[in-house]
Amino acid sequence: MRNQHKSRFLHQNMALHDEMKYSEFPDPFDKARKEQGCGEMNDQDDPVLMLLRHKDVRKCAHNWKTFQSGATPGRIVVPSEVHIRQTRQIPFEVDPPQHTAYRALVEDWFRRPLQPWYEQKLGALIQRSLEEALSAEQVELVREFSLPLQSRALTLLLNIPLSEAETWISWGTHVFRSEDNPLDSSKANVLYDYIDQQIARAMAQPGEDLYSHLLAADFQGRKLTTEEIKGVMILTFAGGRDTVINALTNTLAYFAGQPGALQFLRQQPEMIGRATEELVRYFSPLTHMGRVVTEDTQLCGRRVKADSRISLCWASANRDESVFERPNEVILDRKVNPHVAFGFSHHKCLGAPHARQLLKGLMHGLIEQVQSIEILQAEENMEHWGEFDRKVGFRRITARFHSLS
Amino acid sequence: MAKITFITSQGEHLTLEGHTGSLMELAVEHGVPGIDGDCGGVCSCATCHVHISPEFMPLTGTRSEIEDDMLEFAENTSPYSRLACQLTISEDLDGLVLKVAR
Ligand code: HEM
Ligand code: FES
């Protein structure tokens, strides 16, 4: 009898330990950031010098003249997409002053998430996802929760009918890259063909959606070309997919592992804003982004040659102990939090207002309806960048939601 | 309670009454143009950049290192630059006049 008790206790303890692990996202850059300030990785014979310190990342993100985005399309992405893509993503792969002009065309559009009607509609979509999760026996969070919610939410940002989300959900989580071979372009073609069709549709039948907004826009006294519109739309789809799916999934995994955190927010819902920033810092769903060096220069004590590549490692900068106290802890009410998870300076994320509203809405929904989340099974999604292996999220993670009532 | 006057880039004067929270929150609540407060006040976006009228500088205390570093990369900075989210409303700030940086 006694033994039975004991083993059950141990079992519970082990389960607790596992769940804590789900909510933990270690920092693989720690040592290299302290010792060298940078790391190196090869990528298709076009190596990347990864900048790991907060100060260097911000400085180089700001200095677009020496560290450019407007290189050959695909080259600032790691792994490089130069061999699989010709279309320039806009405004992402453009430098000032042109970048400023392109951004001006879409800036207001991407701020629509801040309006009350948008927040309300987004709230309803989140509500629906949570109800589905609560009524199911178990849910695979990546495919059955985050992907559908991300897709439905994107219809709001593009201002198109909700039914369109079904198409995007059917693409699965790997539309832009094949899971095994990042350089397989056949997957990306699904998206490109789809966007071509959508632009053609909006040309024939202009509406109130983002495609039509771009078709009608005046860019320096002319209309945008179809190729430019495609460049904006591809970016909107690609930039807001894996990042949002990981942010949503990881948030759920975090609250599963830290039930006290949900309780804390239930008592202090006014901290949800800070909690959003803190979780985005901690997860840093976009690990790094490249730049092409335009002139010979020095970085973290090394000579860096013109036409070589560096990357701005947002994920490492966000754990920099010279900026963040207790960087590896989630402090939901962290008051001063100069994170760079949404990038920094000119190219800072256009989708951030949308992403923030989504995470805030999710937390509001959770504290109102969910008592706890239990993880049944999980497989981490590890990224490999040279010497660094980073957990960015989960490949699959099955959970059971317990209702508050 | 404190009365705070925001001068927008269009030259409009908006005098607002604040009780608690930060100057950024006060501005956002009243839709002061040029103050967005994207990060909600955690010092990571600089969309709450203001210039304090010189005579009021002593009232506002000193910038933290993190705020300073953030402002280093902001546009249109001056010795009077502050991030409005880092300034807490109190009676001491009554009468404060500041210019929105953009
Ligand atoms: C939590 C979710 C997200 C994270 C962590 C994230 C992260 C980032 C980062 C770090 C950058 C800067 C890239 C650089 O400097 O080269 C960026 C840019 C961008 N993001 Fe996001 N993003 C997220 C969600 C979204 C969403 C939902 C969209 C749109 C649907 C989006 C669209 C964009 C665009 C268009 C840019 C380029 C802006 C420019 O070049 O001026 N992102 N994002
Ligand atoms: S509101 Fe973001 S820095 Fe002040």
What does this molecule look like?
Chain A has 405 residues and is of the alpha+beta class. Chain A has one domain (36-403): Cytochrome p450 (Orthogonal Bundle), CATH 1.10.630. Helix content of chain A is 46%, strand content 16%. Chain A has helices spanning 2-22, 30-35, 54-62, 98-106, 116-135, 141-158, 165-170, 186-204, 210-216, 226-239, 242-257, 259-267, 272-283, 314-317, 352-369, and strands at residues 38-41, 48-51, 67-68, 139-140, 218-219, 222-223, 289-293, 297-299, 302-304, 309-312, 370-385, 388-403. In chain A, the strands form four sheets. A five-stranded mixed β-sheet of chain A has the order 1-2-10-7-3. A three-stranded antiparallel β-sheet of chain A has the order 4-12-11. In chain A, strands 5-6 form a two-stranded antiparallel ribbon. In chain A, helix 1 (2-22) packs antiparallel against helix 11 and helix 5 packs across helix 15 (352-369). Chain A is globular. The model of chain A is unreliable at 1-14 (pLDDT under 50). By secondary structure, chain B is an alpha+beta fold. Chain B is built from two helices and five strands; from the N terminus they run ββαβαββ. Chain B has helices spanning 23-29, 65-72; strands spanning 2-7, 13-18, 49-52, 81-83, 97-100. Chain B is globular, with a radius of gyration of 12 Å. In chain B, 40% of the residues are buried. The A-B interface holds A 55, 58, 62, 273-274, 276-277, 323, 334-340, 344-345, 348, 352-353, 356 and B 38-45, 64, 66, 69-70, 73. Bound molecules: protoporphyrin IX containing FE and FE2/S2 (inorganic) cluster. FE2/S2 (inorganic) cluster binds at residues 24, 37-39, 41, 43-48, 83, 85 of chain B. Protoporphyrin IX containing FE (HEM) binds at residues 61, 69, 91-92, 103, 157, 235-236, 239-240, 243-244, 247, 280, 285-286, 289, 314, 341-343, 347, 349-351, 354-355 of chain A.
